[in-house]
């Protein structure tokens, strides 16, 4: 593992900025005392933070009203993995725990889905806040996925799906 893990801004107010992820908490928001202070009306004073629980960094929601998204999914907390894409307000960060030589060049550009999200956000067609009605569908999907993963063979899966 790289001794210098970091988040790298690839779009929005954070574009071009790099912040080290060290042993102490890294707070992201628009407040004066944040380690990552961004001028973004979608951010809370203390929007989210990255701290360590054991060897891995954990991203957690603090006081956000618009939520945090990792790889396109809403999370209130998530262990960060190499190349995870973190959307905070109008900014997208990439978490990097390896040297730049080991990072796929495509990591540094926005995906088509991220570009579309930004277009909708700018046009007002996407609400800035986390959309709670989507939570019900996502929770059901995650519950279903967890139940399938707990099954041991195809016959168990088939019997559960036919109920």
Structural commentary:
This protein is α+β, with helices and mostly antiparallel strands and 163 residues long. 25% of the residues lie in helices and 28% in strands. The protein has 3 helices and 11 strands. It has helices spanning 112-123, 132-150, 154-162, and strands at 6-11, 18-20, 26-29, 36-37, 48-53, 56-61, 68-70, 73-75, 77-79, 85-88, 91-96. The protein has a 6-stranded antiparallel β-sheet with strand order 2-1-11-10-7-8, with no helix packed on it. A 5-stranded mixed β-sheet has the order 4-3-5-6-9, with no helix packed on it. A hairpin with a 2-residue loop joins strand 10 and strand 11 (91-96).
Rg from alpha-carbon coordinates: 18 Å
Number of helices: 3
**Element-level helix/strand string:** EEEEEEEEEEEHHH
Strand content: 25-35%
Flag low-confidence runs: none
Distance between the first and last residues' Cα: 46 Å
Count the strands?
A: 11
> Taking strands numbered 1, 2, ... along the chain, how are they ordered across the largest sheet?
2-1-11-10-7-8
3D shape = globular
Q: Which secondary-structure class do the elements indicate?
A: alpha+beta
Q: Biggest sheet, open or closed, and with what strands and sense? A: 6 strands, antiparallel
Helicity level: 10-25%
> What is the average per-residue confidence, as pLDDT, rounded to a whole number?
83
């Amino acid at each position: 593992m790289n001794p210098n893990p970091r988040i790298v801004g690839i779009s929005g107010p954070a574009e071009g900025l790099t912040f080290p992820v060290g042993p102490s908490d890294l707070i992201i928001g628009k407040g004066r005392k944040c380690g990552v202070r961004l001028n973004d009306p979608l951010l809370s004073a203390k929007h989210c933070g990255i701290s360590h629980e054991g060897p891995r960094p954990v991203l957690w929601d603090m006081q956000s009203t618009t939520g945090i998204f990792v790889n396109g999914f809403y999370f209130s907390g998530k262990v960060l993995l190499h190349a995870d894409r973190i959307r905070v307000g109008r900014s997208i960060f990439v978490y990097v725990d390896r040297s730049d030589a080991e990072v796929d060049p495509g990591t540094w550009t926005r995906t088509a889905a991220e570009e579309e999200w930004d277009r909708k956000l700018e046009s007002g067609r996407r609400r800035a806040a986390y959309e709670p009605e989507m939570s019900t569908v996502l929770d059901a999907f995650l519950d279903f996925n967890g139940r399938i993963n707990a099954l041991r063979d195809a016959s168990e899966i088939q019997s559960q799906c036919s109920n």
